[in-house]
Amino acid sequence: MKSIYFNRKASVLRNLDEKPKQKKKINWDKIVYFIILGLIIFFIFRYAFTRVLYVSAPGHVLFKSLVVRVPEDITIDVFYKFEGDDVEKGDTLFSYYAYEDQKASFEQSLNGNLSDLLKDKESSTWEEKEIYQLKKNMQINLIEIQEKQELVTFYEGEIETLKNEVILEISPKAKIDTYLKEIEKLQLEIITLEKENQVFQTLITQLAADAGNVQGSQSGGAVINNSFSAGSGGPTLRYYLAPTEGTITRLYKSDYEVALKSESILNMHEKKDIYIKAFFNQEDLAYFKEGDEVTVIFPDGEKSIGHIKRFYFATYILPEEFQKKYESTTRAIAVDIFPIENESDIKWKAFYKMNVTVRINKW
User: In this predicted model, what pLDDT tens digit does every residue of 30-72 receive, in sequence order?
Assistant: First the structure.
């Protein structure tokens, strides 16, 4: 018979001490490595994809530009319109005095002053008439010298400003060279006028001595008298009216500043005939033609559609802002891009003067 008795001894439970599992540490170095590697691969594929499917070219938005100049030397009085102002045809842009008017007014004043010196004489000798003419020429020269010296001072101030802009790559160095040439030209003109006055003074002294006018010989120096007034036949204040409607985008001069006839006073843009001038590499010539649609990408990422309207078969030097540094001058193929039909040109207006990227499909 089997025993029905079990082991009645007290059972002993044995516990096995298990060590807690350690959490795996995040390997940040590996994560950063894969992120950087992924980005590199992404940009490589993106660049290759873009190069294979598209042709890209830099460009900038342009529209009708009007540079305002006056066909004579003037002294600006005040500006009535400023940068960013919209103007209508016939609006007054600025007032000014013409140099010829100032000169005529000065001569009139000088004639009156010198005639007072001779009014007691019943008749003047030819020496006195020559002295009178020489003194008048000297004073006119002194006015021109003063104006040219003011221009030299202005250009020197502009050069100091441009030096900082050139360092920051805002303005090209060519502007400084232009101002330096103008200063050199003005200084030569000043020297010429001063030599003329020396000759005039010598002649005045000789003529006065011949006429026995010792006092005239001692006081033959010219004196500038710029005190013109409207009531005494002063120069006429003129007004320059806007020849067309548009927006003033830049003022090159300030109030009371001299402007030579060769200098620009202000720049206006008409809000019509807006287009983009793009510069394609010569090796991409086979991928575009007149009439092709292109995508215009603005700096903020906004896109627009245009078409190639004009095609220039001559090559052009790439503008400075698109030219890579430390590389030889690049010549590119220039095209004009206009908005397609039913395409609003408002966004093009909003980005005038800004650089854009033009893209066209290769296939």
Answer: 888 889 988 998 888 877 766 667 888 898 888 777 888 888 8
Strand duo 303-317 + 331-339: pairing: antiparallel
| Whether pTM exceeds 0.85 | no
Q: What is the CATH number of domain 53-63+273-361?
A: 2.40.30.170
Q: For residues 94 and 265, is the Cβ–Cβ distance under 8 A? A: yes
> Residue ranges of the domains in the chain?
53-63+273-361, 67-117+125-269
Q: Tens digits of per-residue pLDDT, 116-150?
A: 555 544 445 677 777 778 888 888 888 888 888 88
Residue 146: phi and psi, rounded to 5, are: -60, -45
**Rounded to whole angstroms, what are the CA distances from 350 to 123, 250, 299, 300?**
73, 17, 12, 12
Please say whether the dihedral angle defined by the alpha carbons of residues 156, 161, 164 and 169, taken in this order, is positive or negative. Answer: negative
The three state secondary structure string of the chain is CCCCCCCCCCCCCCCCCCCCCCCCCCCHHHHHHHHHHHHHHHHHHHHHHHHHHEEEEEEEEECCEEEECCCCCEEEEEECCCCCCEECCCCEEEEEEEHHHHHHHHHHHHHHHHHHHHCCCCCCCHHHHHHHHHHHHHHHHHHHHHHHHHHHHHHHHHHHHHHHHHHCCCCCCHHHHHHHHHHHHHHHHHHHHHHHHHHHHHHHHHHHHHCCCHHHHHCCCCCCCCCCCHHHCCCCEEEEECCCCEEEEEECCCCCCEECCCCCCEEEECCCCCEEEEEECHHHHHHCCCCCEEEEECCCCCEEEEEEEEEEEEEEECCHHHCCCCCCCCEEEEEEEEECCCCCCHHHHHCCCCEEEEEEECC
User: pLDDT, tens digit, for every residue of 220-254?
Assistant: 333 333 333 334 456 788 899 998 888 888 888 88
Would you state the structure tokens that stand for residue 152, as one six-digit string?
């030299």
